[in-house]
């Protein structure tokens, strides 16, 4: 039986292995095509990316002129080897700065452009990476899942625009949810079917039909951003009418339960609890995000919770339901 320490080492190894998922070019292209207008004259920084293997680097170097970029900076973490799966075996990392120069029509690769060495290990929190961050207008990458809270906090601290991949579970992190509520962070266009395949040497447990050689399928992955995009301005078409029978009030929250985003009643002007996947359809002109269930963080429910119930997870007719976000329709129909 493993000792406590071995168990926690195994846990750390697994956790860090989850950080070594590499993004496919097609997924980057699919998302980035919705944001072209934001990139003109901008410096882009990919700060969790080895330019020799990262598809974020490939995407931006290839589309440098098309997007009208000013500069592209990429840095990686603890890695010198040209190996897709970072071993983190080097205390000095590499970086690359590209200003768009190319001979003829040929798009240069990372080696042609010239890789330089960082003084340190390339940790996004290190002083030299923060200096590079200060130069950047927009940060675009898939950061390590295990450091997601710190990663976003740093972007917010330095007031950067960003487009990054994360897991939808992060929506209700106490460091992330207040940003969503205040409209300082929202979801991007997203992955088809709410799942993505990443290049990985981690064993995949996906079903046979969804299994792809050398890849892992991760469900619930989303793009987080503070860049405006068209989908965020689209109105969700509502067709259901409120009835107390179809939309019962929670036993422990002053709100009605709406189990499916598509079934938000068009004529209800009070507080509604919806699944977190609602955020994929969230248009701030149509709805207001008021809070989330108290089980997600103390004080998240902002007075909607009936404290005396003592139960923080939302309950409907004695049945507990999954994570809920509380919203209000800004312009309910009068029927
Ligand atoms: C989920 S992977 C994605 C890699 C790449 N951005 C991509 O999308 O293909 C996260 C990357 O962050 C790197 N990383 C881990 N800790 C880091 C840190 N403290 N600072 C910067 N990068 C880190 C990992 O080595 C890994 O390559």
Notes on the structure:
- The protein is an alpha/beta fold.
- It has two domains: 4-230, Rossmann fold, CATH 3.40.50; 234-329, no CATH class.
- Helix content is 19%, strand content 19%.
- It is built from eight helices and 16 strands.
- Strands 4-3-2-1-5-6-10-7 form an eight-stranded mixed β-sheet, with helices on both faces. It has a four-stranded mixed β-sheet with strand order 11-12-16-13.
- The longest helix has 14 residues, at 4-17.
- The protein is elongated, with a radius of gyration of 22 Å.
- Mean pLDDT is 89; it is low at 1-13.
- The chain binds S-adenosylmethionine.
Descriptive key words:
335 residues, alpha/beta, Rossmann fold, 2 domains, eight-stranded mixed β-sheet, 8 helices, elongated, binds S-adenosylmethionine
User: What about the largest sheet?
Assistant: 8 strands, mixed
Q: Characterize the overall form.
A: elongated
Integer average pLDDT = 89
Helix content: 10-25%
- CATH level-3 fold name of the largest domain: Rossmann fold
* Structural class designation: alpha/beta
Number of discrete domains? 2
What is the oligomer described by this structure? single chain
Q: At CATH's second level, what is the architecture of the largest domain?
A: 3-Layer(aba) Sandwich
Condensed summary:
This protein has 335 residues and is an alpha/beta fold. It is built from eight helices and 16 strands.
List the helices and strands and how they pair.
Blueprint: H1 4-17, H2 25-32, E1 43-46, H3 55-62, H4 64-67, E2 71-75, E3 94-98, H5 110-113, E4 116-117, H6 127-135, E5 138-141, H7 148-157, E6 161-167, H8 177-181, E7 186-187, E8 195-199, E9 215-219, E10 221-225, E11 256-257, E12 272-274, E13 287-292, E14 315-316, E15 319-320, E16 325-329
Parallel strand pairs: 1-2, 1-5, 5-6, 11-12
Antiparallel strand pairs: 2-3, 3-4, 6-10, 7-10, 8-9, 12-16, 13-16, 14-15
The chain binds S-adenosylmethionine.
């Amino acid at each position: 039986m493993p000792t406590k320490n071995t168990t926690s080492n195994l846990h750390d190894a697994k956790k860090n292995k989850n950080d070594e998922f590499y993004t496919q070019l097609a997924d980057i292209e699919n998302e980035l095509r919705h944001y072209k207008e934001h990139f003109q004259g901008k410096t882009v920084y990919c700060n969790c990316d080895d330019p020799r293997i990262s598809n974020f680097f490939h995407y931006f170097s290839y589309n440098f002129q098309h997007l009208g970029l000013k500069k592209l900076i990429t840095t990686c973490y603890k890695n010198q080897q040209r190996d897709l799966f970072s071993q983190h075996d080097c205390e000095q990392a590499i970086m690359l700065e590209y200003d768009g120069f190319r001979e003829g029509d040929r798009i240069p690769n990372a080696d042609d452009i010239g890789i330089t060495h960082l003084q340190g290990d390339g940790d996004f929190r290190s002083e030299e990476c923060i200096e590079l961050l200060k130069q950047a207008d927009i940060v675009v990458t898939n950061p390590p899942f295990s450091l997601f809270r710190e990663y976003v906090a740093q972007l917010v601290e330095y007031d950067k625009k960003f487009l990054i991949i994360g897991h939808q579970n992060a929506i209700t992190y106490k460091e992330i949810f207040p940003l969503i509520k205040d409209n300082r962070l929202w979801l991007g266009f997203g992955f088809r079917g709410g799942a993505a395949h990443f290049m990985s040497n981690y064993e995949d447990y996906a079903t046979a039909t969804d299994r792809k050689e050398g890849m892992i399928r991760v469900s619930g992955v989303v793009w987080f951003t503070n860049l405006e995009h068209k989908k965020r301005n689209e109105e969700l078409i509502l067709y259901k009418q409120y009835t107390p029978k179809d939309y019962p009030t929670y036993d422990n929250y002053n709100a009605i339960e709406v189990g499916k985003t598509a079934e938000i009643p068009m004529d209800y002007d009070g507080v509604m609890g919806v699944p977190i996947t609602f955020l994929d359809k969230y248009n701030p002109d149509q709805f207001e995000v008021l809070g989330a269930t108290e089980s997600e963080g103390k004080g998240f429910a902002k007075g909607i919770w009936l404290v005396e119930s003592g139960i923080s997870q939302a309950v409907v007719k004695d049945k507990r339901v999954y994570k809920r976000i509380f919203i209000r329709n800004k312009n309910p129909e009068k029927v």
